[in-house]
Amino acid sequence: MRPRQYAKNAFIFAPLFFDRRLFDLKAIILSFLGFITLCILSSGVYVLNDIIDVDADRNHPQKKYRPIAAGKISIRNAKIFCVFLFTAAFIMSFFLNKHFFLLCIFMVIINIGYSFKLKHIPLIDIITIGILFIIRVLSGAVLIKVKIFSPWLYIVTFMLALYLGFGKRRAELAAINGAKNNTRPVLDGYTVPFLDQLLSIISAVIIISYTLYTFSSPAVPSDNRLLITIPFVVYGIFRYLYLIQVKHQGGAPEEVLFSDRWLQGTILLYLISVVYALYI
Asked: Does residue 225 sit in helix, strand or coil?
């Protein structure tokens, strides 16, 4: 079910946070229920993906220990569990918000396309992941009925997803170090220099887009105090780049997030500075 991957679904809280609804109890409850729904939906997608990739996973040094690939859970039972997870998520989303329900269906359709075909196409694989992150943010916006949500935040979300995705591909490519690749064919469409160039471009776009958000969005304070958060964003981007290019980490972004104290501290300081700028 990949509970460590649930951190991705935290993007559903972005509208709650940046729309200054952090102390709105109804909005908090709706966002939290939406988060739980997306986590259940994500687990259904991961189970489906493990069913589809069972043969490839058995040839992977780490993935071969996953329950389906290791034979601990039969494919039949996995299919039943997958249907159960999808059904539970769709029922929850339907009763929460009809637009949210449609977004959940859209997410599953995209994920099915990704599992069968899109994840094998260079560039399209990561762009698809970026679109899914935008849907997570949009889900949070429709759940709490945000009236004004800056388009710059959607751009930042999309670019951040690309940044993490290409960073992961770079780490995977560096890990095999020219060896024969039998587990992720899409890596054959990338090179380390190409990915480094993409990361440089995306890093710049993230910083510029976020900077424009801090003083151009109608939802931010007119005295531009949100500018104080920019140094934390810049350092966070550079820190992750340092980890994947110098320390050769980043194969799993969630593992980097849970292990690097500097990155955790930066995120914490960023959140504190945003609360100060938007709420105090």
From this structure: helix
DSSP H stretches of helix in the chain? 14-18, 25-52, 54-57, 75-96, 98-116, 124-143, 151-176, 192-216, 230-245, 253-259, 261-279
pTM beyond 0.85: the answer is yes
Number of domains the chain is built from: 2
Structural domain for 80, as ranges: 1-149
pLDDT at 171: 85
DSSP 147: S
* Whether residue 16 is found in the same domain as residue 89: yes
pLDDT, tens digit, for every residue of 175-206? 777 666 656 788 889 999 999 999 999 999 99
212 token code pair: 């424009």
Q: How far is the C-alpha of 230 from the C-alpha of 10, rounded, in Å?
A: 21
Same domain for 261 and 177: yes
Which string of b and e fits 233-257 if b means at least 16 CB within 10 Å?
bbbbbeebbebbbeeebbbbbeebe
